[in-house]
Amino acid sequence: MIYEMLAAVMAFLLGFVSSYSLRGKKNARASAKNGNGNENSLKSCENGMCQPEIGASTDIIIVGSGVVGSALAYTLGKDGRRVHVIERDLTEPDRIVGELLQPGAYLRLIDLGLEDCVKEIDAQRVFGFSVYKDGKKTKLPYPLKNFHPDVVGMGFHHGRFIQRMLKKASNLPNVRLEQGTVTSLLEDNGNIKGMQYKCKGSHQEITAHAPLIIVCDGCCSNLQHSLCDPEKVPYVSSGEMAYYLKTKVAPQVPPELYNAFLAATEKGNIKSMPNRSMPAASHPTLGALLMGDAVNMLHPITGGGMTAALSDVVVRNLLRFLCNLNDSPSLCKLLESFYTQRKQVAFTINTLAGAAYKVLCASPDPARKEMRQACFDYLSLGCTFSNGSLALLSGLKLCPLSLIFQVFVVGLYAVGRSLLPFPSPSRIWSVARMILGGLGIIFPIINAEGVRQMFCPVAALQSYLRGPPII
């Protein structure tokens, strides 16, 4: 912490005294924590293998086989659970979603034993980001010095990645995959007891029962009624989308990618994926658990979607503590603990994504322009100054307090550079507007994510104590 505080003071002095002269293009060196990315392990029963109940055909039903569903099917099946996966379409997905796996998400794949699923799918190693602004650019490498050389980001075809995970899951004898559409959940006095679904190609409804149903069928889930209506996008078939990409998007593309972007647009194989913004709100319903995009979506600007999704799966370790899923009181405590423990990761990723989008998107507001320039200049300093932000962005360090600290440091830098060469009344007024604008961005996001859960440790501690003990 002393090291980070020194970095904060240095950032302020650099911003106040020499923000422009010290805007370098240095090669960043990592100062990330030394560790293997594993979550806290939980007490497991019978050497980590929960034995299925006698006479029970299914322990857990998983609705959806995307990143969360397929990873869950494998890990729960490996734990000895009898798992039934119901997916609308088990063929290889071909859509735009989840193409970037941040280094932090790769560490979670290792935790789940799924790291081999990024092999043999033409995955490309990603070592960081390049940020472009007004003809200038800066490179932002991931802070990976203290991690194994295999730990990097990955870019790949989403469908191939899903198929690799599904193949591993289907090889387990206690995991059953089925194509079908879930139509409704069966409720009894507020408890979810089962569900109804239709097999593909059939109109007959089938009833399935299980002590726990995990819904992870994405943002368009018909079981999650609190979803917002997506913003409409231009139609692809009429040519509106191609025209929009050429006239609106192409002028903003970096020169190195401009020709390739136009060539891809001319091919006409354009796909769109509407995005919704949903805070990580909990839905503690006995017998049912919401995971992934069905309960929480964030802006894709930071590429943190799969980090959040796979973190949800890692937290599934709570289930290893509970052998008897029919024990309703214990299951209720477990579900409460799950939503509390996932909040730390979800809050950090969601707040970072929302704030980054608001600051970096184009705006005629002079204060927003100043914030955008300050962020670019700060990241351009490299080394110690960018490592903290990149550790959050890459999912290597997901802590709400670290996020708040980084926002504070960048704010100090922005204030210092804005007061150059001396704090005249006009510059002081500009700084005041910038601070108010920044607070107007970050506070609504924090409020939507849940202030009490993040900044009231007593409430969080009580939830932890109600759930299974972590050792």
UniProtKB/TrEMBL annotation:
One of its GO terms (molecular function) is squalene monooxygenase activity. It catalyses: squalene + reduced [NADPH--hemoprotein reductase] + O2 = (S)-2,3-epoxysqualene + oxidized [NADPH--hemoprotein reductase] + H2O + H(+). It comes from the Eukaryota. The chain crosses the membrane at residues 390-416, 428-446. Keywords: FAD, Flavoprotein, Membrane, Oxidoreductase, Signal, Transmembrane, Transmembrane helix. Its cofactor is FAD. Residues 231-429 form the Squalene epoxidase domain. Its main location: membrane. Pfam families: NAD_binding_8, SE. Pathway: Terpene metabolism; lanosterol biosynthesis; lanosterol from farnesyl diphosphate: step 2/3. Its EC number is 1.14.14.17. InterPro entries: FAD/NAD-bd_sf (IPR036188), Squalene_epoxidase (IPR013698), Squalene_monox (IPR040125). GO terms for cellular component: endoplasmic reticulum; membrane. It is found in: Membrane. It is a multi-pass membrane protein. The keyword Hydrolase does not apply. GO terms for biological process: sterol biosynthetic process. Residues 1-19 form the signal peptide. Belongs to the squalene monooxygenase family. Catalyzes the stereospecific oxidation of squalene to (S)-2,3-epoxysqualene, and is considered to be a rate-limiting enzyme in steroid biosynthesis. This is Squalene monooxygenase. It comes from Prunus armeniaca (Apricot).
